[in-house]
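Exercise 7b. Backbone tokens:
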């Protein structure tokens, strides 16, 4: 049986070395500062960055509702690729399990291109999710510049 899917792709070049940018995706203290839409705040971040390891990110909406991103890592290749599945708890947006794959490419010694692919296994309007990832990348860019 074939399922509809929605693919969200975001690409960003960061003027920082690949190893540094890669690390910001696996360090709970950094993820807490850049993850999610700009109007959300992040509470707890629990990451076990190894294949089969868990990730849990507490997202707090502007109305103070709590939404957890919970999943597990399916692939980690140092400085090249991270992939993980996740579900929202509670699954208010009714997305079910999704897959996020992030590729890291060194443009040169001091610039990294990040390509994020978020696969949702149903048809949805991708605009809000894409804006959320772009906002996270905006926050990461500021974080990288200031640290």
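Sequence design result:
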């Amino acid at each position: 049986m074939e399922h509809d899917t929605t693919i969200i792709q975001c690409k960003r070049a960061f003027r920082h070395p690949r190893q540094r940018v890669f690390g910001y995706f696996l360090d709970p203290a950094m993820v807490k500062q850049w993850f999610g839409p700009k109007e959300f705040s992040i509470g707890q971040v629990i990451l076990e960055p190894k294949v089969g390891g868990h990730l849990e990110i507490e997202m707090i909406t502007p109305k103070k509702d709590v939404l957890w991103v919970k999943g597990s890592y399916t692939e980690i290749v140092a400085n090249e690729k991270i992939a993980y599945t996740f579900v929202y708890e509670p699954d208010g947006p009714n997305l079910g399990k999704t897959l996020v794959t992030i590729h890291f490419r060194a443009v040169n010694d001091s610039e990294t291109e990040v390509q994020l692919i978020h696969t949702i296994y149903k048809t949805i309007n991708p605009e809000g999710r894409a804006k959320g990832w772009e906002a996270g990348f905006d926050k990461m860019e500021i974080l990288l510049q200031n640290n």
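Instructor comment: The longest strand covers residues 66-77. The first helix runs from residue 18 to 23.
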